[in-house]
């Protein structure tokens, strides 16, 4: 007896998480092996590859907090990862936007946690700027988390619109 597509749960999207983790960690390993700390490799007039260490969270939040933040952010990411995996399990296969968002966020969270556990900091290297304005450096895991969060918001907005149409 074969299982129908609609009855499958979202755990298949763990493969998306794994892909994000592999791409994130491979890019960071390349940076660590080839780019000295704070060195700039100019790619475009507004974009450099610049290896920096982030001891905090997004935008280096709490980066100078004395070290406790490493375990705090690792704990938060561990709890979020467990919740996301549970939600993926409980989410029906038909809820594709949700599953894509969960998979992206989970992969990004694990990619950054791996850095915190191995190095004590997150490896960031994608650096956009314009004249004197600089966006904080980020990495592949951060892109996945941001895209997953945006997709989750989009899913919520579209779901609200769909409920209004039905009502």
UniProtKB/TrEMBL annotation:
Would you say which domain of life the source belongs to?
Answer: Bacteria
Instruction: State the reactions this protein catalyses.
Output: Release of signal peptides from bacterial membrane prolipoproteins. Hydrolyzes -Xaa-Yaa-Zaa-|-(S,diacylglyceryl)Cys-, in which Xaa is hydrophobic (preferably Leu), and Yaa (Ala or Ser) and Zaa (Gly or Ala) have small, neutral side chains
EC code: 3.4.23.36
Pfam family membership, one: Peptidase_A8
In this protein, the active site sits at: 124, 142
- GO annotation, cellular component aspect: plasma membrane
Q: Per UniProt, what is one GO molecular function of this protein?
A: aspartic-type endopeptidase activity
Query: Which purpose does this protein serve, as stated in its record?
Result: This protein specifically catalyzes the removal of signal peptides from prolipoproteins.
Q: What is this protein called?
A: Lipoprotein signal peptidase
Q: Keyword set for this entry?
A: Aspartyl protease, Cell membrane, Hydrolase, Membrane, Protease, Transmembrane, Transmembrane helix
The pathway it acts in is: Protein modification; lipoprotein biosynthesis (signal peptide cleavage)
Which species does this protein come from?
Psychrosphaera ytuae
Cellular localisation = Cell membrane
GO terms, biological process: proteolysis
In the record, the note on similarity to other proteins reads: Belongs to the peptidase A8 family.
Q: Which residues cross the membrane?
A: 68-87, 99-121, 133-154
Identify the enzyme class. Answer: hydrolase
UniProt membrane topology term:
Multi-pass membrane protein
Q: Which InterPro entries match?
A: Peptidase_A8
């Amino acid at each position: 007896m074969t299982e129908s597509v609609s009855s499958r749960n979202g755990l298949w999207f763990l493969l998306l998480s794994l892909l994000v983790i592999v791409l994130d960690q491979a890019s960071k390993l390349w940076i660590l092996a080839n780019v000295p700390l704070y060195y700039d490799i100019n790619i475009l007039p507004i974009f450099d590859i610049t290896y920096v260490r982030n001891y905090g969270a997004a935008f280096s939040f709490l980066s100078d907090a004395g070290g406790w933040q490493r375990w705090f952010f690792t704990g938060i990411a561990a709890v979020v990862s467990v919740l996301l995996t549970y939600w993926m399990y409980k989410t029906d296969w038909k809820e594709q936007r949700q599953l894509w968002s969960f998979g992206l966020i989970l992969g990004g969270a694990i990619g950054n946690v791996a850095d915190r556990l191995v190095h004590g900091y997150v490896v960031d290297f994608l650096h956009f700027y314009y004249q004197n304005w600089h966006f904080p450096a980020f990495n592949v895991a951060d892109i996945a988390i941001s895209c997953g969060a945006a997709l989750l918001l989009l899913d919520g907005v579209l779901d609200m619109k769909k409920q209004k149409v039905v009502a």
